[in-house]
Design a protein that fits this description.
The chain has 7 helices and 9 strands. With 211 residues, the protein is an alpha/beta fold. It has a 5-stranded mixed beta sheet with strand order 4-3-2-1-9. Strands 5-6-7-8 form a 4-stranded mixed beta sheet, with no helix packed on it. It is globular, with a radius of gyration of 18 Å.
């Protein structure tokens, strides 16, 4: 029996029946990676494959954003459900997501939203994120600015786009939100907001493909 094939076929069929084909290839890749790591030692713990996603400007519960950003939703409730659905369609439970700010209109809603969203979630504050949003249960970390390395690339993360940033001329990338796709980017600068990326989090490799 092929354990990878059996598990993969079952999960793929389940997800396709629920209209989530985008998750199938990711699940297959995760399973292959996990099974390969444990192949030499059947007693070894399976180490999950972790993807790192980026997003911003979800503005959950904010009907004003539908008009300002011309989002294709009838109302805030419909927008929220679609954002949650699209997030969970690409982000696995074990994945990591950096949210670069402007989470939701009402801080009281944030903990409940985070509980519905897959992944380990880090927040970098936006101009619409009060202290109560940062204090909500469900964040792995919060802050205003971060420098991280993903896929051997140095990333400078903030809600706001920069004119210049640390390592700019040595290959570092600036990932940001705030502008809702209306700002012409500088070289090596990417808007990760949902308005730019089909209302879902995005992988670093997909940012290069969309530029």
């Amino acid at each position: 029996m092929d354990p990878e094939g059996g598990i993969y076929d079952g999960l793929a069929g389940f997800l396709e029946a629920r209209g989530r084909p985008r998750r199938v290839d990711k699940i297959k890749a995760n399973l292959c990676h996990q099974l390969w790591l444990s192949a030499d030692d059947p007693n070894a713990d399976i180490i999950p494959f972790v993807s790192v996603f980026f997003t911003a400007d979800t503005h959950f519960g904010d009907h004003r954003t539908i008009n300002i950003a011309r989002r294709p939703f009838a109302n805030a409730a419909a927008m929220d459900e679609e954002l949650v659905e699209r997030w969970n369609a690409v982000v696995g439970i074990g994945d990591t997501v950096w949210h670069l700010g402007d989470v939701a209109r009402r801080p009281a809603d944030v903990a409940g939203l985070l509980a519905r969203l897959n992944g380990t979630k880090h927040l970098l504050r936006g101009n619409n994120d009060p202290d109560a949003t940062l204090a909500a249960d469900g964040w792995a970390s919060t802050g205003d600015y971060a420098e991280v390395e993903v896929d051997d690339r140095r990333l400078v993360l903030c809600h706001y786009p920069f004119r210049s940033w640390n390592g700019q001329h040595r290959g570092a990338l600036n990932l940001h939100g705030h502008s809702h796709g209306r700002l012409k980017p500088m070289p090596r600068q990417f808007d990760v907001g949902v308005d730019v990326h089909n209302f879902s989090p995005v992988l670093l490799e997909n940012l290069f493909e969309s530029s």
